[in-house]
Amino acid sequence: MSSSLLSVINLTKKYGDFYANTDVNLNVKEGSIHGVIGPNGAGKTTLFNSLAGSTKPSSGKIIFDGQNIEHLEQYDRPILGIGRSFQVTSLFPDLTALENLRLASQAQEPARGFVFWHGITRKGFGQRRALHMLHRLGLDKQAQTPIKALSHGQQRILEVGMALMSEPSLLLLDEPTSGMGVDDIPQMINLLKQLREECTILLIEHNIRLVTEVCDQVTVLQAGKVISEGTPLEVSQDEKVKTAYLGEGI
Amino acid sequence: MSLYLFQILNGVGLGMIYFLMGVGLTIIFGMMNFVNFAHGAFYALGAYACYVVMSITGSFWAGLVLAPICIGILALGIEKVLVRRLYAVDHSIQILITIGVMMMIREGTLLIWGTVPKSIRVPELLAGIVAFDDFVYPVYRLFIVGVTALIGIGLWLLLEKTRFGMVIRAGSERPHMVALLGINIDKLFSMTFIGGVALAGVAGALIAPIRGVDAFMGVEALGIAFVVVVIGGMGSFSGALIGGLIVGLVQSFTSGFWPAGTNVMIYSVMALIIMFRPNGLLGRA
Amino acid sequence: MLVVSHINSYYDKSHILHDLSFCVKQGELVTLLGRNGAGKSTTLHSILGLVPRVDGDISFNGNSILGLHTHEIASKGICLIPEQRDIFQILTVEENLQLSVKKGSPWEIKDIYRLFPRLEERKKNGGGQLSGGEQQMLAMARALLNNPKILFCDEPSEGLAPVIVKEIVDILREIKKSGIPILLVEQNLRVCEVLADRHYILEQGQFVYECSQADFFSEEAEKMKTKYLEV
Amino acid sequence: MIKLKKAIILASSMFLSLTSYAQAKDVTIYGVSSESGAFANFGKQGSKGLKLAVDAADDAAGMKFNYSIIDSESNAGKAARKVKAAISKSDARYFIGSTLSSTALAVGKEVDKAGGIYINGSGADEITGTQCNKAMFRWSAPTYGAVNASLIPVLDLHPEIKRVYTITPDYVFGEAMLNNAKIILKKRGIELVGNSYHSLKEKEFSGYLSQAMATKADLLLVLNFGSLATNTLLQADSFGMKDKMQILLVWSSGLDHFRTLTPKVAEGIYFGSQYWHEDESPANKAFVALSREKLKETPNYPMAHYYQMTKLLIDSMNATKSADPDAIRKHLEGLEYDGLTGREFINAENHQVEKYFYLLQGKKASEMKDPDNYANIISKAKYFLPANETGCKM
Amino acid sequence: MQNTTPFKTYAMGLIAFVILLPLLIHSQVLATEILIFAMAAIGCNLLLGYSGLLSFGQSLFFGGGAYAASILSINFDVSLLTVIGFTLIVGIALAVLVGFFSIRRQGIYFVMITLAFGQLGYYAAFLAEDFTGGEDGLLDVPRVALKLPFLPDVHFDTDISFYILTSVLFVLSVMLMQLVVNSPFGSVLQAIRQNENRAEAIGYRVKLYKIAIFAFSGAITALSGALYALMLNFAPLSNIDIEISETILFMCVLGGLGSIFGSIVGAAVFLLASDFLSELWPRWMLILGFLVILVMLYARGGLWASLMIMLERAKEILGIKEKHNV
């Protein structure tokens, strides 16, 4: 039994009087793919943001690799080994695919970002790793294409690629297939399956096919609270979950 | 003691004038998220319009009434041709373009009315002073405070108590939802812009008898108006009032002990307030 | 009454809806089902002119409404109860209602208070102070006052406690009884089952299944539900 | 392609050099004036005066006079740069006028380095004081002269004045005015009951004016200038102060101030002025006639002093029959001549033109004989410190 | 807007520009002023064009640089390099201060804070008469000589020698800025401008980068202010007035946002227009205002980009003709 890479303990997030998350507990085992699902408004994105550092939780702890991280700034987390993707594609639209990835790689060595006295064509600013990643994502041909000219599916894949550039030990994916065409989804599933070899993944997803296919463990949120946890099969049998998704008898 | 009392009263009087300069700006911003750097130019045009009407009709009152109408008509044109395209763009682009508008208006006024400043006489009815013991105050200033208070109350009633105001407030929060209720939000935006700009015209016309009319009065007013609304919170009606009063009082008190430093104080107060209350005193996030 | 034929919708470069055609007839309650991101809300928004680019044709009571401004479409009587409710937070409950009153509507504010007694209790409160359920009621009330000829309901049960959901369902039923057709987007299948006349299931911006209420429990329909809706 | 470029460059540079050297015998007089920017009004009038003087000049001594206007854009830095460019590019040596003292000081340095002549009428006393140099001449009364020539006659006319309140802009010029006033008041045993400093960007004088009234002063002595003074007087009028005390604006802009203020405000107020078009001196009569004939307008101070300064320069060129700055300087130093304000004299030690300064009083609208007859000349006088007291070391 | 043209080509182009400029406009002083303001406009462009920060406080750096250089040159017997070094330090210090406070806010609030700093700088300079000369400005600013060990002093008293000095500093700083915008640092700035949130999410401390670009902007703007003071031998109060901020901003916008060469074009066009047009028609600013609106509405790339597009078209037409010939 492998140990927990990420533990969330009694995490609560309030917006005014509104509780987006209440006492959420979560353990993500090293090397696993962990899905977080739940109906709209369940507080998945809030939880995700607390983990990624774009919001600070109101109370509770987040322990990553034995270290408390709930107080860390967003920009500190990639360097610790937590990569994230965004639900709505959030890239640098006027820059090329290669440059996007290169920037993500360069960020791993914070001092490099302040090098202003020479150009970036030299080695060591992530160029090589970015090319490598492009190849891996199957986007070699798009290296010099600006992001805004890429298809939506390609953008989604790049979105995940960006998170990977930090060589994360934990990858946080926010609805990686959101808005993707049916044809592109298998490509994403393949990518995720490959990735499990190198890192732990926590993902929020609506595409149940994807969740059942790739996840080892699933946590179900409803109204900000954890209502069920287990393997995809266990969870799908859980009456509480069914009710949460399909509604109670009326 | 009486000196302090005077400074407070004078500060409040000034504050009301500053409120009048800022209120149109804040309404336009609050409703449409539009930063209008040409606000001061419309203020100056208001003063010129009042001057022109007065020199034709001989009546200050006609000027006071017609000036905002003229400015409103001009604003209608500018909104249709230019401003309409800018609601969705970045603040910085709105600022740069409205600065262009400001320059065109300023140079235009110089072209039309020349470089000699004009002055408008205080109407006979309002000339003179009121005296309470040692404390004297010009009637015309009291008149401005009164008119501003009336405009303020009128605006408040309009915004808070009428259907039109309700729609404006609703539109400032969720323009899409207002459209979904079958209300023409674009028209509403135009009307708000025209109204806000016309208020600048009123301010210009009202102040003309105190400080004269010149092409550069707009720039000063713009600075003050922005400080006022930033202090109070961009978009907040009552914020403009509080901001105006704060600036008025700071100016009144500073001029007592450090006259050269009034502007330093005003800008420092503003900078401090934004540092600690990023959206101004009453601004929404 | 509402006829949507072969519409394609785009946000920037993303092609969201692919060749959708459907209709809502007088007095009918039709549901659009599908998982998140299937394109249900986008369908509603496309009809209301809130999506930047829509091709195809949409007609309402025989007149094409494609390309009209949102407010023009809305004044023809197409009323949306949005997913986020979009209550005006800075207005009071009563102001929210007054704002929506339109001449000719069969409902007046006093009818609303009869229908939603809670709103009357809270009429002086700001829209921002309401609970989720109250907000949903207010959003529905607002649509009713707006003289609707057809009602679009986007996930009315989302995030609400079961008791409240029940109340909402009752109200929808009452509205339906009054003869106003409803296009309902809903994830809660139970809600759909008790209300709807016909169902459409969407996946990736395309219709994958269409059936009447009678067929909704057929073997095929159950399969479709499992495939496209369930966990 | 490259050849074409070269040809164009060559052609254009030849053209430019041709135009600048073609008229070697001409003398170009450069007017430094703020044609645009915040002081465009002043500059525009000044340029008119300069043009009038050049157009009216004979081309005696075989020289033909031209003028060129350097737009200072109401900015001292711009003016300095353009003057520098004119000196190096066109060999400019003769410069007239400025709006701002800071412009005059900066331009003065440049012209001095180039060995030219620069006559201006700026307010700052440093021009003929601590910052004086051999190139600069100043045709305007210093603060000392202005305060003496206006305050003393007012005090003589109104022996009832016992308490004086001053309003002063908070910078060097205002300080100089205030010090001069204090000396006079002290000499006469009149109490200075209060003073309000204000910033140069002040628009609001209500606070200071109320303090003045609270001190029950008999005379409000306004020591600011330009639009500051306009605002002060407009606001004083709305406070009804004219009924309670005398008001003297020492450094007015003359005709412009009366036009802006209108007779209703100006009536009864005393104004100090560098120039008034109704002076009876022969030179002024000729000038006013010329201006009314050529420009159809009554000259104001900017026009008059640019005219006078330009004419002074042209006259001395004619007198010396040369365009040599040194010769002209020698001629100007110690010169006494018929000027617009009467007999004027140029002090050789600090290049101050010792001219008359006027005290005017605003007239009732009903008493005005013509549209520009805004005021009566109460007195005119010359007060100048001995050159060794001005701090000038040339 | 990544440039792929080789570095050397830029250098050659710039050198050709500084050699041709005084010949074309026939005035070394005006040419000097153009180079100086081009540097200031580049400073503004670093913020607005490359980082999306609209600063109304550039006059603080410009005026601050002018005062720093003037005070040092008037009061101490120093070498030119010392003056330049001191100016850069003052510029950077002011910029870091303004940057530190202003970048915490966005949109109009950011603009207002930079404006407030600009205004505070103006009034501070006005009041601190002993150091700045107040309204009169600092007169008699000497052009200090360049003192190098074992070599004779180099003086810059003539227009031409000062133009050469300015050209050298201009070429060096433009090349440096060209390096900066194409460096790893510059690429992070582009990323921040396009998507601040993502930049932070992949691990960049966005605020630090913004302060850093403020420092660059402050340095080059202060240097231009210093050169302006040395050129005029005079540091007027108007150097630190809001009008200078506006002028710099206009040059930057007119020339084109996000292009260093655009700023050079913007400064040249602005100054030449103000020099020639102001004499023809004092109300020429009316046209300027109109141009600014047009550029912001239809050609964000400004005059430079429009020029480039026209060149491309010309090339295309020529290219087609060549093909026909073959």
Structural class of chain C: alpha/beta
In the predicted model, the low-confidence regions of chain C spanning at least 5 consecutive residues are none
Number of strands of chain E: 0
Q: What is the CATH architecture assignment of the largest domain in chain C?
A: 3-Layer(aba) Sandwich
What does this protein structure show overall?
- The complex is a heteropentamer of chains A (250), B (285), C (231), D (394) and E (326).
- Chain A has 250 residues and is an alpha/beta fold.
- Chain A is built from nine helices and ten strands.
- Chain A has helices at residues 44-52, 77-80, 97-106, 127-137, 152-164, 185-195, 208-214, 232-237, 239-246, and strands at 4-15, 18-29, 33-37, 59-64, 67-68, 82-84, 170-174, 200-204, 217-222, 225-230.
- In chain A, strands 6-7-8-3-9-10 form a six-stranded mixed β-sheet, with helices on both faces.
- Chain B is mainly α and 285 residues long.
- Helices cover 75% and strands 3% of the residues of chain B.
- Chain B has helices spanning 2-32, 39-57, 60-81, 91-113, 139-161, 163-173, 175-180, 185-211, 217-232, 237-257, 262-276; strands spanning 129-132, 135-138.
- Chain B has a two-stranded antiparallel sheet with strand order 1-2.
- In chain B, helix 2 (39-57) packs across helix 3 and helix 5 packs across helix 6.
- With 231 residues, chain C is α/β, with parallel strands linked by helices.
- Chain C has helices at 40-47, 70-75, 93-100, 109-115, 117-121, 132-145, 162-177, 189-195, 219-228, and strands at residues 2-11, 14-24, 29-33, 53-60, 63-64, 78-81, 150-154, 182-185, 198-203, 206-212.
- A six-stranded mixed β-sheet of chain C has the order 6-7-8-3-9-10, sandwiched between helices. A four-stranded antiparallel β-sheet of chain C has the order 2-1-4-5, covered by helices on one side.
- Chain D has 394 residues and is of the alpha/beta class.
- Chain D has two domains: 22-141 and 280-354, Response regulator (Rossmann fold), CATH 3.40.50; 144-273 and 357-389, Response regulator (Rossmann fold), CATH 3.40.50.2300.
- Chain D has twelve helices and 15 strands.
- In chain D, the strands form three sheets. Chain D has a seven-stranded mixed β-sheet with strand order 7-6-8-9-10-14-15, sandwiched between helices. In chain D, strands 2-1-3-4-5 form a five-stranded parallel β-sheet, with helices on both faces. A three-stranded antiparallel β-sheet of chain D has the order 11-12-13.
- The A-C interface holds A 37, 39-41, 148, 151-152, 175, 178-179, 181-182, 206-208, 223, 235-236, 241-242, 245-250 and C 13-14, 16, 35-37, 83, 155, 157-159, 162, 165-166, 169, 187-191, 194, 203-204, 229-231.
